[in-house]
Amino acid sequence: xxSESVIGVSxxxxxxxxxxxxxxDFDELQALNNRxxxxxxxxxxxxxxxxxxxxxxxxxxxxxxxxxxxxxxxxAKTVFEILDLQxxxxxxxxxxxxxxxxxxxxxxxxxxxxxxQLMHSANGFKIVCIVTEMTEMSxxxxxxxxxxTNDSLCEFTKSMINCDQFSxxxxxxxxxxxxxxxxxxxxxxxxxxxxxxxNLIESNTSMIQIDDLSGDALEKMLxxxxxxxxxxxDSIDCEYLLAAHKYDLPLLTAxxxxxxxxxxxxxxxxxxxxxxxxxxxxELREPLLNFVALNRKEISATNGWLLLAKERPELLAKVVSxx
Length: 323
Description:
5-stranded antiparallel β-sheet; 35% helix; 29% strand; alpha+beta; Apoptosis, Tumor Necrosis Factor Receptor Associated Protein 2, Chain A; SKP1/BTB/POZ_sf; Potassium Channel Kv1.1, Chain A; 13 helices
């Protein structure tokens, strides 16, 4: 049985601020400022920053505004870029990480000849600094499920099917049903794994839209992914086997294919044989080839035999060769 517990989580939160200063009238600014040219302020989530530029273009600095009010030190990464106004040419500095606060409030950069050349353009230039503030996150508590020590791993993962706890992705079927899922678990399917690696997810909703599966088939497939459980009854669910094959779950394909083979009769055997061929499922195809060969006389009088001759003549030839 499950009960509520907590887990501590800590880490570093990063806030990225792009400070971009476009200078179109440097000569005028130079004439008005004998010491330093000051940019407008750039406000981030926690702090504001601004540039100081040497009138002789020897250095530029990015500065923490109102640094005396910063009560807690924090680390920040900074990297400078000098660009022309068309962004066609660019000079980039090395990245530097420093601790700001407690008297340290700026990063100054001596400008190299390549950067100075861009800044001498009569058409103006841009100074950019990417500031990444890094803040230690406070420890937070999240609810988790704890399980009796007698519970197996399979029982635990099974309990997480369509569970919103720690869910980091949702999957929607073609009939509008939506399932909570977990990227680590669904990556068991190479097809889902490739979707995740290729970012084929709606960024705002963390949703994977599946247009070729009904909610029932998707639910059955997720149950297998989480628990190895194959849902089976007296029905023949072709979509379930096709889904297992398409989403590259060979164990599910083999298990359900073997189950379907036991349900073969004169009326459905051709359809099952074709299904086994479509899904490349030996556990279904081979028993059905034998069944059709043994019962050829009766089956040849059915519409299924005509279907086999039309749709899969190579299978028909194989059946005939076995008789």
